[in-house]
Automatic annotation (TrEMBL):
Listed PANTHER family: 3-OXOACYL-[ACYL-CARRIER-PROTEIN] REDUCTASE, CHLOROPLASTIC, SHORT-CHAIN DEHYDROGENASES/REDUCTASES FAMILY MEMBER
GO MF terms held by the record: oxidoreductase activity, acting on the CH-OH group of donors, NAD or NADP as acceptor
Source organism, top-level taxon: Bacteria
Source organism: Marinobacter algicola DG893
GO biological process: fatty acid elongation
Protein name: Short-chain dehydrogenase/reductase SDR
InterPro entries in alphabetical order: NAD(P)-bd_dom_sf (IPR036291), Sc_DH/Rdtase_CS (IPR020904), SDR_fam (IPR002347)
Length: 234
């Protein structure tokens, strides 16, 4: 039996990851930042929903300590603050604290248990790991940081038997992207740029995460793998 922690695993892309891992036989702890996120999570065999704020070292340490065995960490917890707010230093710092430092915090806390199990980490990068954002500079900076953090941890921990990779999702159908999907102008622009001509699904990200965690990817570390329907190639 293998055990996984999926931060931000109760909604959006994270919920797709939780489902994919559960279908593959993992026992998953999926976290949400609020009681509502935890309570709203649809019951799924093999998945337990728990509350976690990744900006709290105490909470992160506690949830890691709750695992007797930990084979995988998938960092999906993240925020984006639109309407130009991330140009303000306080909002910018808050976004980095969740998306980037929260990822490091969870990886570092789980390192010893992953060494014991020969486990693996998958972080969540973004198309904005490669492109800038005129409206969300904190999010873009944090996701660029996640990509470089992933490579750094992969280099540092490879000889300890811990692989560290990341997925870089393209445009995926979630509650976060619903306003864009419902905007004819934005949706057309996105889909016309995407060679596969459609929105991705959270489970499609989850299945790629599952591959990166698996023995089939045993010689893969430090990779930032786009899962974007071709968005990044045109």
């Amino acid at each position: 039996m293998k055990y996984a922690l999926v931060t931000g695993g109760t909604r959006g892309i994270g919920s797709g990851v939780s489902r994919s891992l559960a279908r593959a036989g993992y026992r998953v702890v999926a976290t949400g930042v609020s009681d509502q996120e935890v309570n709203d999570f649809e019951s799924l065999e093999g998945v337990v929903a728990r509350k976690l704020d990744v900006t709290s070292q105490e909470q992160v340490d506690a949830i890691i300590a709750s695992f007797e065995q930990l084979d995988a960490i998938v960092n999906c917890a993240g925020i984006i603050q639109r309407d130009g707010r991330e140009f303000e230093p306080d909002y910018f710092a808050q976004t980095l604290e969740v998306n980037l430092t929260g990822t490091l915090r969870t990886c570092h806390a789980g390192r010893a248990k992953l060494i014991e199990s020969g486990g693996s980490i998958v972080n969540t990068a973004s198309m904005l790991s490669f492109f800038g954002s005129a409206s969300a500079p904190g999010y873009a900076a944090s996701k660029g940081g996640v990509a470089q953090l992933t490579k750094s941890l992969a280099a540092a921990w490879a000889m300890e038997g811990v692989r560290v990779n990341a997925v870089a999702p393209g445009w995926v159908a979630t509650e976060l992207t619903r306003p864009l999907m419902e905007s004819d102008e934005r949706s057309v622009a996105i889909l016309s740029r995407t060679p596969m001509g459609r929105w991705g699904e959270p489970d499609e990200i989850g299945d790629v995460v599952l591959f990166l965690l698996s023995n089939q990817a045993r010689f893969v570390t430090g990779a930032i793998l786009p899962v974007d329907g071709g968005y990044s190639i045109v």
